[in-house]
Amino acid sequence: MEQEKCTDVVIIGGGLGGTAAALAAAKAGQRVLLTEETDWLGGQLTSQAVPPDEHRWIEQSGCTASYREFRSRVRDYYRRNYPLTESARCNPILNPGNGWVSRLTHEPKVALAVLHEMLAPYVNTGRIEVLYHTVPVHVDTAGDRVTGVTVREGRTGGLIKLRGAYYLDATECSDLLPLAGVEHVSGAESRRETGEPHALEEADPLDMQSITHVAAVDYVHDGNFTIPRPREYDYWRQYVPSFSSYPILSWYASDANDTSKLKEFTMFPNEQGVVSLWDYRRIVDPELWSEPLNDGEVTLLNWALNDYYAGPLIGVSPEERQQHLDSARQLTLSLVYWLQTEAPRLDGGRGYPGVRLRGDVLGTDDGLAKAPYIRESRRIRGLYTVTEQDVSKELRGAKGAKRYKDSVGVGSYHLDLHPTTVSQRTFYIPNHPYEIPLGSLIPVRMKNLLPACKNISMTQIANGCYRLHPTEWNIGEASGTLAAYAIANQVEPTAVRETDEHLQSYQAQLIRQGVQLHWTDAELEGDR
Fold first, then answer.
1. Pick from 47, 358, 53, 112: nearest CA to 215
2. Confidence at residue 528, expressed as pLDDT on a 0 to 100 scale
3. N or C, where is the chain less crowded by C-beta within 10 Å?
4. 347-375 average pLDDT score
5. How far is CA 300 from CA 91, 261, 328, 393, 457, in A?
6. How far apart are CA 493 and CA 329, in angstroms?
């Protein structure tokens, strides 16, 4: 018999946006049911093992107060619990892993602990209930409203009907949209439709950004931890992307500064001027510790070498989707095996058998993350669609950063498109700092369903920058706050945007909780 649970706000997906949305709605006094497919909340930061990609202002501005609180709590967690050196402990901008992808590379388990701390007052008092190992399977609608979402609990197979006033889609692929019949897009739009210079001539809903199944490894100099030869190793060893003259398993990949060119990388820091990938996403650096805790450094394999773009997860049959998920894992295992056995070394040798998978770091048995990092999901058709023209520094020129009357937050990141699944196009377009318009969070028709992660109304190209950690958190927080505001004031999201009184009141609520709505003139001056 199907169980039923009722609440104020139902949030499907416990990734970064979903967690931020739950926190915001609970703080605003609403009861929340939050579902998560794995047993870890946090998405990019935890189950997908992706340290935060952030902009250069992040230590002072350009994110919400709650996201800044998360960052501070991560550093405090290390100070409280790890034997740091005195200099590391006193460093106000401590970078626990000393990775260079971010100013805050840290272990996924630390992010998970911090998120649990932030949610604890609301989870422990019952205002937030979390259902783990749970996925949506059916959505009930009546006209332009969702009336219930049926989810399946993975361990028992039992079905639960979730009912609320508002439903937020924070799943990694925005799975509620097709289930609820919400107008949406996926993949690449056409240049004719969007006017974007970098759009395709013809739209292709199957041409999506690559996914990556991240792995954690350390390196023991005299060790040999070579894994069994992966099933698909021979395929990936010979696979040459269309934009390269080298196999994907090589030290050559697209240069972010000019994606029409290739750049050489290598494994470890060196004196020959070749860029090292080992310290790129390093999350453990024992140099910061006053006493040894393990065998050495730990890094995450989320490189161009294991970007999977052989096929999409959306718009294909369940069987094909599973095939791509399995092959993405095989590609990462093949990368590990290649590093252990065949990767060219700068000293002329080959292979680093001391590379060891570290499942304990990611809460898994095999050393791979609990879930793949999915860069691009379905996206709603909303009241406003963010495009390349809104963000590109080249296209906006002297006009600078675009301001929106209905802004609900800010962010900044290059329009970073990883190789796509059909055209394999990739680019890294300089951006102006951007804002998040409320219109991009409101579907064109559905009244009580809101996006809460990488699924706002934006083009594939705009998604290249709006998908990163601080922006996804901000979107989730704005969406959770919007649902709470709509319930408290008995008004629909469309009216919040279209009525000056409600828009100003909603924005004032965001400001009170520390959401930055606009970039300051001083910050924008520094962008020129």
1. 358
2. 62
3. N
4. 97
5. 24, 25, 15, 31, 31
6. 40
